[in-house]
Design a protein that fits this description.
The chain contains ten helices and no strands. The longest helix has 38 residues, at 65-102. With 333 residues, the chain is mainly alpha-helical. The chain has a domain at 167-333. It has helices at residues 3-34, 40-45, 65-102, 114-132, 142-160, 174-206, 213-216, 220-254, 262-284, 289-312. It is flat and about 70 Å long.
Length: 333
């Protein structure tokens, strides 16, 4: 295949992935709509592998045994369908990334500009959700994840899309793979942790429920514990990306470990916020609502650095991370 054919395949795969994510979102919305009159225990009894993973032991709403069983089966069916479609979308999403890398001459990793970073980041969010889905019983998170990924992909296609170009001089380094892989993994994990923290605040405000979508969300202590575990995993990965591989790569590209670049500064701000989150939990006993708020502040700084800096800063040396790649020499700041 020619480079242009690979690029076309990549663009088409992104479009197909978006459609499949949309279908997965619809399936999960139907699942949630059916949950309004069905308790999690009824879904589990109906044999819903996806729908019955998070049970609270609540009793079904008294709408008649036959109708309740029918709704429970519908919840389980659409839960499994949504999960299947999400897995399919993730596979097509990967094809889009692969095609993007093979479209370049020479072939390269698909992280040459902001469009490619965004497509890669959303892929990791979906992949991590699928990997952690059973371990942490995250079926309730499905419509949030698919909705977030679909929206971000639409933004990438409409406003960030750019043609495939060779890597700039600064990016043409093996440190690109080490630095970006660790940063993207941490970004995906922090995003999932942010969703858990937001769910904690919603459930804390509205209280426990015996039926409906909110009843499917785990208890507050469980949400708090899972969120902490995901953040505890992501933080050392982010530390490796921001404080180790980033400065080494900066020294190789610009002969300086630290340049007070806006992206460097905001990456460090993100690190400080999450360090405060983990420190407060382990020493001051900060749990629950306060910890969730701090985690949301962290994910806000993370995504502002990931996207916002490229639109609001004119001095960043990370110019290649914009939709129109450009490399700024150190002396041109």
């Amino acid at each position: 295949m020619t480079n242009s054919a690979w690029e076309t395949l990549s663009d088409q795969a992104v479009a197909v992935a978006g459609v499949v994510y949309f279908l997965a979102l619809l399936a999960h919305l139907v699942e949630w709509a059916s949950l309004r009159e069905v308790a999690p225990a009824s879904v589990a009894a109906a044999g819903g592998a996806a729908g019955g993973e998070v049970g609270t032991g609540a009793v079904a709403v008294d709408t008649g045994p036959d109708r309740t069983a029918e709704r429970a089966r519908r919840v389980a069916l659409f839960g499994r369908l949504g999960l299947l479609l999400t897995g399919l979308a993730c596979a097509v999403h990967f094809v889009a990334l692969l095609g993007r890398g093979l479209a370049a001459d020479p072939n390269r990793v698909p992280w040459g500009n902001m469009y490619e970073f965004t497509v890669s980041g959303t892929f990791v969010v979906t992949l991590m959700y699928l990997v952690l889905h059973r371990r942490f019983a995250l079926a309730w998170m499905a419509p949030i994840v698919t909705g977030f990924v679909l929206t971000t992909l639409m933004i990438a296609v409409i406003w960030l899309h750019s043609e495939v170009t060779p890597l700039t001089e600064a990016l043409n380094s093996y440190w690109l793979v080490i630095h970006v892989v660790s940063a993207v993994i941490a970004t995906g994990a922090f995003t999932l942790g942010g969703i858990l923290s937001a769910a904690y605040l919603v459930k804390d405000r509205r209280g426990e429920a015996t039926s409906g979508p909110l009843a499917r969300v785990p208890s507050l202590p469980t949400l708090d514990r899972i969120s902490y575990r995901i953040h505890a995993f992501a933080f050392p990965v982010w530390t490796f990306a921001v404080l180790i591989t980033g400065p080494i790569w900066a020294h190789e590209a610009w002969s300086s470990y630290w340049n007070w670049d806006p992206k460097e500064v905001w990456a460090f701000i993100t690190w400080v916020v999450y360090a405060a989150y983990l420190h407060a939990r382990s020493t001051a006993g900060w749990k629950g609502r306060n910890a969730a708020i701090l985690a949301l502040v962290g994910v806000a700084t993370l995504w502002f650095n990931f996207v916002g800096i490229n639109f609001f800063s004119t001095t960043t040396q990370h110019g290649y991370a914009e939709s129109a790649p450009a490399f700024v020499e150190p002396g041109e700041r």
